[in-house]
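ok trying again, last paste got cut off:
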Amino acid sequence: MFAYIVRRLVYAIPILIGVNLLTFILFFVVNSPDDMAVSQLGQKYVTPEAVQAWKRKNGYDLPLFLNSQEQGAGALTETIFFTKSVKLFAFDFGRSESGRDITTDVSTRMWPSLAVALPTFVVGIWVNICVALMVVMFHATRLDRWAVFVFVALMSISYLFYIIGGQYLVAKTWKLVPISGFNGEIQPWKFLLLPVLVGVIAGIGAGARWYRTLFLEESNQDYVRTARAKGASEIRILFRHILPNALIPILTGVVVVIPSLFMGGLLIESFFGIPGLGSYMLDAINSQDFAIVRAMVFIGSILYIVGLILTDISYTWADPRLRLD
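nice, full thing came through this time. structure:
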């Protein structure tokens, strides 16, 4: 197991390099350093001298990949790519274009993101599995057909509808919780209740339908028919046979999602005014702050790779027949 984990971590290095390089290229295809300077200076008419001064101050006056004016290693190190992107592998995220420390911002904003995403994740899985198991118990009945129709209808509705509808109904009409905002010290649950509720309800359609498909596939296996022939009750079959044997595909979808909890949700955090990593990323994109975008993509890549490794490890827990050499 230890050798497998080390091997996967070694394989992750070229993946991170490729993601880092691709992010760098895509960003500078869209924005040149001059465009970034104009955006950050925030003036309608910017003089060329001001643009050059901003580029020198922020290190964007260097060539992108190769500095022909330098000799030896300096030809590679004295470039924008090396000074801005390679340092990420030492977890040196540097400062944003506005001068803020990115590491401090990430460590501060990750907690509001987790406060919303973690309960949404846990409650959502529990609700989806329970609903799917209930529907499977009544498979091929009118309840099952109506449930599938409702699942498809919920999947077809835009996520924005759930957000705006929840804000209008729960916050504005019933006045049960604030419409938006976040306070981590004074009754934070009031600010988190509606975003979590919206996230759970919005995910029922796709989640319950997917789990229903997994459980129905297991219910057609020979061991289930044998259990029914022996007189086992449907509840016992669901919880003692179908659910444990469906854990591997469930873990595939669940464990991979866990790293995204740290990254937050763009729409939820933006519409509910939650100062998490999702809104942090969206603000950086709008302001063309390449330093923040670069750091967030790099962190997301690391978390996704860790999620894949955790998925493989969890397989051995769910099915002892699987062994990682």
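cool. Residues 106-318 form a domain with the MetI-like fold fold (CATH 1.10.3720.10). The first helix runs from residue 2 to 30.
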